[in-house]
Amino acid sequence: MLSSGRARRLALVTALIAIATAVALTGASATNAASPQSHPIVVKPLFSNPQYLSPGAVTFGCQSRPIDGSHGPRCYQPAQIQRAYGYSGLLASGVNGTGKTIVIVDAFSNPYVANDLGFQDALFGLPAANFTAVAPQGVPAFDPTNGDMDGWAEEITLDVLWAHAMAPGAKIVLDEAKSDQDQDILNALKSAVDGNWGDVISQSFGEAETCVGLPGPALNAQYHAVYQEAAAKGITVFASSGDSGASQFSCDGSHAILSPSAPAVDPLVTGVGGTTLNADGTTGAYLGEKAWTEQLFGCNPPATGDADINCSGGGFSTLFSRPSFQNGFNGNAGRGVPDVSYDAGVNGGVLTHCGICNLLNGLDPSNPNVFFIFGGTSAGSPQWSALTADADQLAGHDLGTINPSLYSFAQAPGLYSAAFHDVTTGNNNVAEIGTGYNAGVGWDPVTGLGTPNAAALLPALAGGCVTTPVNGPTNVGAGRTLCIAPGTQVNGPVSVNGGTFIANGASLHGPVNATGDSSVTICGTSISGPLSVSGTTGQTIVGGGSAFPGCAGNSISGPASFSNNSGPVEVDGNTISGPLSFSGNTGGVHQSGNTVSGPISIH
């Protein structure tokens, strides 16, 4: 996404404005070239009629484009993102943020966002949103000739629509600051926290940490005080980590400097970086990710303006020291960002109805048949906020600051492999400053701990893993997760029927069978009985090998069979007392390093 302008005023918070390219409902687009500007990059659309496959299912040509960007950007609609990041079963079981409120802090206003919600919900089969906009200090009348207002209006559309898409039962409150000056943003944020407006707060904006509040007294301490109040009240706070890689613009906006983005850099805020997501163009099945360095616009070319810097923001603070939850992850003395990441690529971006985008392209804002592809780290903060609202509902209480929990999960190899997609390739180098960082195994200052698998992460956030013995037959049904902690025994058979099962360093005394829309992760565990995984659609990891190095091999007293699975299957480094068989698996199989007292068959 783009910052809100190259010549940014002093003390101005810049929205991490989403890069957008318009598509018609069959995905046809014009060939208008992208250029640096203060609002999203827009390709003027062509028109066509919606193509409904079933209620809530629509065909877009951009969904089937190659992820390499050779035929234009790939796009995803809500159901595909829900599937790729593991929400689907939870949403189907009613875990959708009901009873929780997401507060989205932005500047100015958007007179079209309520209509955008209605069009998006109708097209994609989402329930009507419980949405309200509040301007605690008032806002000026919307002026479509004002570039700053246009950019923030586009940001509002992305934030509101995609928070709703991942937590369709949650209430959405748009908190409108009267301008994008630091003090006005702070006032709006403080109003939300003081007034207990919500359970989770999303912030898709930022600037260099040393520029906050200039030329007057720095406001970082005042922002931090509000985040302390939020933490004390159990409110979770997110912020996008920025779209200019290891850099931010200098305080006078003239050049790039090595700096992380505030407010994401505050240790009481969960910073969200960016990836390029590769998911199946039809089903949304997860296929892989890399750090976001936009193939269409590029992060590394010499700087000629905002549009040349489009990759995941990250780095180390000079104002905040390394928090204790990052000990063992971050060897730098300063706080590292981001903490986590999410799909941010325009190539692989999210389909969004955007009335203001239509207006700026000379189109009718109320035309329901024109959608735009949005990208950038702005897309991640509202969706991580939605994920947390879902987790709050599941837990029955607000989780508050989640950073310590996220990093503790990463110290449990089986849970980490199940709850996160660890993104290990790519970088956020910026040529103008001559440096940047690389993604790697575990936490890194490009993609953080990685992207979520909500099916495993939400239950872990909501209640953690089982640490007491489980006796009797155990069934993990649709949308449910059972996580078995190290040293814990399960006495009896385990059946996984559409849920998520995680065992790390456990003892399973009985057979394990998984079927349906299930995900299975078993690491460093002894299984006294056969293991069967058949007809599953989720990811299966039974010993991670080099692909999932934190997941140790297992001891299985019986045959192990994997058949007719459409999700990926990883079976590495296990000792199996019986045959090992693979047949009819369409999602890909990797097996190596297994010690088997019987034949190995692959069909």
What would you note in describing this structure?
By secondary structure, the chain is an alpha/beta fold. The chain folds into 2 domains: 14-69 and 81-460, Rossmann fold (3-Layer(aba) Sandwich), CATH 3.40.50; 465-602, no CATH class.
Strand content: 25-35%
CATH class of the largest domain: Alpha Beta
Considering DSSP H and I runs of 4 or more, what fraction of the residues is helical? 10-25%
Largest sheet data: 8 strands, mixed
CATH architecture field of the largest domain = 3-Layer(aba) Sandwich
Compute the separation of the termini in Å: 45 Å
**Strand segment count:** 43
The count of domains is 2
Helical/strand content category: alpha/beta
Poorly predicted parts: 1-19, 24-57, 301-307
CATH superfamily of the largest domain: Peptidase S8/S53 domain
The CATH topology name of the largest domain reads Rossmann fold
Shape: globular
Average pLDDT across residues? 85
- Put simply, the count of helices is 11
Structural Rg: 23 Å
Task: Name some characteristics of this structure.
19% helix, 43 strands, single chain, disordered N terminus, 2 domains, 11 helices
Topology overview:
Elements: E1 14-15, E2 19-24, E3 52-54, E4 57-58, E5 75-76, H1 78-84, H2 88-92, E6 101-107, H3 113-124, E7 130-134, H4 147-166, E8 171-177, H5 182-194, E9 200-203, E10 205-208, H6 220-232, E11 236-240, E12 247-249, E13 256-258, E14 261-262, E15 270-279, E16 286-291, E17 315-321, E18 334-337, E19 340-343, E20 349-352, H7 355-360, E21 370-375, H8 380-395, H9 403-410, H10 413-419, E22 420-421, E23 451-452, H11 454-463, E24 470-471, E25 474-476, E26 481-484, E27 489-491, E28 494-497, E29 500-504, E30 507-509, E31 512-515, E32 519-523, E33 526-527, E34 531-534, E35 540-542, E36 555-556, E37 560-563, E38 569-572, E39 575-576, E40 580-583, E41 589-592, E42 595-596, E43 600-602
Parallel strand pairs: 5-20, 6-8, 6-9, 7-8, 9-11, 11-15, 15-19, 24-27, 25-28, 26-29, 27-30, 28-31, 29-32, 30-33, 31-34, 32-35, 33-36, 34-37, 35-38, 36-39, 37-40, 38-41, 39-42, 40-43
Antiparallel strand pairs: 1-10, 2-21, 3-4, 10-14, 12-13, 15-16, 17-18, 20-21, 22-23
